[in-house]
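User: I'm writing a tutorial on reading structure tokens. Could you give me a worked example: one chain, its sequence, then its tokens, then a sentence or two explaining what the tokens reveal?
Assistant: Sure. Here is the example chain.
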Amino acid sequence: MELQQLDNIKSENRIIEWLGPFSWAGYENQNNLDKIPDIEGIYLWTFKYKDGYLVYCAGITKSTRKRFRQHTLEYKSGNYTVFNVNDAEQGRRTEIWHGWSYARTHREEFAERKEEILNAVEVQLTSFRVFVAQMPDKRERARFEAAIMNNIYSSTEHWAELADRGMALSKRRKDELPIVVENISNVKFYGLPKTLEI
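And here are its predicted structure tokens:
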């Protein structure tokens, strides 16, 4: 494990290799993409954007396949936010349905609009491009997820408004050594820098 001096503070280095794009689990026939490998690590939900991929959300898991089954159920229950995909692929946030606390208090509206919303869910899940990276350490996964999302939240780019909000994030504590992550990928990401301190 290599250590380096950064502003008189020791930090560790990690090289993270992102694999993908993969299909949302169960949508491989619709978009002709490969299945997500079942890994322990971190994943990105992205939309196609310009010459690359726009990060909408980062997540962590012990099993990507199990976690994506849970996410699919949440989408189809109306608990997650659903977008106009054409606008999302331009970096614009146009909601068809707002999930989370709104969804919990507007179940009648969801029931009335269910067909429309579920059709939009199908379009969104088909359009997602998923990337994954192995990261076996649970605490490092949580820190990495927080760093990715907080980096997007602090961005002044117009597309940053698209990012998932209200996530429970667990950034680095003061007693933890900084880790500098170098992100390796064969694609261009908007919202994920080449290096990121977690």
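What the tokens reveal: Residues 3-197 form one domain. Residues 138-153 form the longest helix (16 residues).
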